[in-house]
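Entry for the shared binder. Reason: the reviewer on the internal report wants the predicted structure included alongside the sequence.
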Amino acid sequence: MAEIPAAFAHWLHAVFVAQFDWWVALGFLAQTSFSMRFVIQWLASERAKRSVVPVAFWFFSLFGGMLLLIYAISRKDPVFIAGQAMGLVIYSRNLWLIANERRAMAKTD
């Protein structure tokens, strides 16, 4: 039973320390950027007292998604690459729709 904590400690070291390099650092930065979109959305919703998806959500999605795609390409992970690439299309489209809506509203003012 005593070997379980030692084995777990060895696994943690192998996963989080031994293989740590520039790409892993980029991956953590990318994941943090991508996760910030949820924090932004949550804070905006709390302020409005209703569910809100602010424009910053889509910018964090796009930036974090691009960094995660770069990371996935470096890791040669086809599932991760496909998922992030599709997400970038959706985030870009949402930003495009928001920009079009704002242009239309500016014309009517």
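Summary line for the report: The mean pLDDT is 93.
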